[in-house]
Amino acid sequence: PLDHSTLAARIMAILAHAFVIVGLIIMGKVHFADTQVGLAMALLYLLLPCTAYDVSKANHVLPAALLVWAFVTYKQPMLSGTFMGLACGAMFFPVFLLPLWASFYWKNGLKRFVLSGSVVGAVLLGSLILTSVDRYSFTQQTIGSIDWSVIKFEGGQQIPGFWSAYDSAYRIPVFVVFVLLIVCLTIWPRRKNLGHLMSHTTAIIIATLLWYPQQGSVYLLWYLPMLLMVVFRPRLLHTTQSTEVDRNQQANEKPVSRFQDSATVVRHTSQ
């Protein structure tokens, strides 16, 4: 029989996967203007064999689920910042996405995005303070919860994964390129739309796995939902966060699905 902790972890993982599936469907219906695209993304997420890898580990799928809902609610910076803050509290890699998302909301909604994320961070820290006996216990629950030994660029580490056969010093230039990638994707293009945000987010997460030593290359659940959104997304030029765009026109305008475009082309060519 399963103990209560294992059962709770598996239930949490199931709920997180369901959270991803519902988010992908809503993403297709609301932001891609095509429910079939949302259903296709959700179905492909369930059918891909890589979804079954670490399927019962909630700490792998929960950050991705929260990021999906950050995209679903991207028009509401308060909600998007809340989901992003929760994702940062669940795993370390969403922290690298904060500069990109801040640049997306730079002209419209940055204060609300930062405020909601900061409130979530304060609540998480407050909960740790209330559950800590002393200062040492609080430190162990926050900083001590991260295995810093696998992130150190030191030799002689026995870490399972791609980097186990190489000296840790070889990861330093990879990490430098990773930081430069974050800087480039944050400042370019200056005006970003939802398509840029999705593709850049996916690229940063995948780049994180290139230098993360502990089996980083096989943590597919970190970026799989975002990768599906990038593959299935239509043209999203109308989703730029800018004060120059008329809000009423932006609210009424809907993206055109790539499948609708192809159907129109076929209809015109047949005539």
Q: Major β-sheet, in short?
A: none
- The average pLDDT value, as a whole number, equals 78
- Roughly how much helix do the residues carry, as a percent range? 55-70%
Could you list the spans in which at least 5 consecutive residues all have pLDDT below 50? 243-253, 256-271
- For the secondary structure, the number of strands is 0
| SSE sequence, one letter per element | HHHHHHHHHHHH
Global shape: globular
Q: If helices are DSSP runs of H or I spanning 4 or more residues, what is the number of helices?
A: 12
Q: Give the distance, in angstroms, between the N- and C-terminal Cα atoms.
A: 66 Å
Strand fraction: under 5%
As a whole number of angstroms, the C-alpha radius of gyration is 20 Å
Structural class: mainly alpha
Query: How many distinct domains?
Result: 1
